[in-house]
Amino acid sequence: MDVPAKGGFSFDMCCRNGMMEKKGFKAPGFLKTGTTIVGLVFADGVVLGADTRATEGPIVADKNCEKIHYMAPYIYCYGAGTAADTEAVTAGRESRVVTALALLKSHLFRYQGHVSAALVLGGVDCTGPHLHTVYPHGSTDTLPFATMGSGSLAAMSVFESKYKEGLTREEGIQLVSEAICAGISDDLGSGSNVDVCVMTKGKTEYLRNHLLPNPRTYVSSKGYSFVLGQTEVLATKITPLKQAEVTIGDAMEE
Amino acid sequence: MSIFEYNGSAVVAMVGKNCFAIASDRRLGVQLQTVATDFQRVFKIHDKLYIGLSGLATDAQTLYQRLVFRHKLYQLREERDMKPETFASLVSALLYEKRFGPYFCQPVIAGLGEDNEPFICTMDCIGAKELAKDFVVSGTASESLYGACESMFKPNMEPEELVETISQALLSSVDRDCLSGWGGYVLLLTPTEVQERVLKARMD
């Protein structure tokens, strides 16, 4: 019987999939988050930023996806790499940034880079603001400002020229937005909008779609209007739905 | 040839005003030969939740059977139907479990929530969820479907208009893909009824 598994991976389809590959059927590609993700430490905390494009090869699969993952009340994590991996790796618990870091790096190291998630982890805990980057093989860096993803070079150039210690909150958000915009314009794997997350002691602000530099402008004002009944239909079946009745109290009560 | 192109498929779901529509093609092929023209790709989980599975047909059927099993267990334990968001997380977890030996399916999930808010999402074959507020597509015809839906979709469509739009988007897209088509099936769900239609399409 197929009992639900208690977490971890199951490798029972590997034989069959291997057989298919040998017969010449290539495995499909996965959804990647091409991406520009950045973080910086400012006077009172940490600001993280990301673009919102998800790609499937050269096609944009999602124009406004969320790359931020919540780990704990004041610890957030942005991910690049295979979308499924970054979502699964960040289902964590702890309340110190270094603990979250240790959990992430040990998980990724265990899978020797096959779980392809590159993350920027930032947060504020009782010991102050922290910013770390985690690579798919499990190595980590602790930095005052960091960028990851295909757009990291574009974003790093902005940081290297404009970062200084002791930035204010507004300056931090402004700098992060500029760095992400650089990634959006100069990297094909990143695009759409800018998401920003500001974490300070006791408060997290998630500014979803903080900037919308690429609005959709090719909308036709008329749009397509189809005549009702235009599509040729061979058969129609209409089933009314029963509305669920809620009975208060247990019918079996004596 | 890719494993996804072995059977050929096209699935699309669109959101309307307090309703949603999910549509698929009806071809089952073995590479370039057509074996059936009435293949079911959209399956019912409960009255207000449907899942469309594109990709390898055998994995689609196995995955559907596993999901129905898990949902029935949930119904027995919780004495109610699963919410669409919960079901999407269940599918994602089931697919991610097989991260290194995946099911070759891309599910499209469409459901009506508690307050009759439509919910749609799609995933890649290892469970990366993509929620959308307008439409989601999957299958060999996905590139054409993206284009057709992007131009034909309008927000807050009434049920009749939604059915026309999704049918036209599906039929025009599968006509540009050799591996999918041979008929269309559209399911429209409103809070009071389910309408299923079989469309007349090019049989080539």
From TrEMBL, chain A:
One of its GO terms (biological process) is proteolysis involved in protein catabolic process. Keywords: Cytoplasm, Hydrolase, Nucleus, Protease, Proteasome, Threonine protease. Its main location: cytoplasm. It holds the Pfam family Proteasome. InterPro entries: Ntn_hydrolases_N, Proteasome_bsu_CS, Proteasome_sua/b, Proteasome_suB-type. GO terms for molecular function: threonine-type endopeptidase activity. It catalyses: Cleavage of peptide bonds with very broad specificity. The keyword Zinc does not apply. Transmembrane segments: none annotated. CDD domains: proteasome_beta_type_7. It is found in: Cytoplasm; Nucleus. One of its GO terms (cellular component) is nucleus. PROSITE patterns: PROTEASOME_BETA_1 (PS00854), PROTEASOME_BETA_2 (PS51476). The 26S proteasome consists of a 20S proteasome core and two 19S regulatory subunits. The 20S proteasome core is composed of 28 subunits that are arranged in four stacked rings, resulting in a barrel-shaped structure. The two end rings are each formed by seven alpha subunits, and the two central rings are each formed by seven beta subunits. The catalytic chamber with the active sites is on the inside of the barrel. Component of the proteasome complex. Component of the proteasome, a multicatalytic proteinase complex which is characterized by its ability to cleave peptides with Arg, Phe, Tyr, Leu, and Glu adjacent to the leaving group at neutral or slightly basic pH. The proteasome has an ATP-dependent proteolytic activity. Belongs to the peptidase T1B family. This is Proteasome subunit beta. It comes from Eleusine coracana subsp. coracana. The lineage of its organism: Eukaryota, Viridiplantae, Streptophyta, Embryophyta, Tracheophyta.
From TrEMBL, chain B:
Transmembrane segments: none annotated. It holds the Pfam family Proteasome. It is found in: Cytoplasm; Nucleus. CDD domains: proteasome_beta_type_3 (cd03759). Component of the proteasome complex. The 26S proteasome consists of a 20S proteasome core and two 19S regulatory subunits. The 20S proteasome core is composed of 28 subunits that are arranged in four stacked rings, resulting in a barrel-shaped structure. The two end rings are each formed by seven alpha subunits, and the two central rings are each formed by seven beta subunits. The catalytic chamber with the active sites is on the inside of the barrel. PANTHER family: METALLOPROTEASE TLDD, PROTEASOME SUBUNIT BETA TYPE-3. This is Proteasome subunit beta. It comes from Eleusine coracana subsp. coracana.
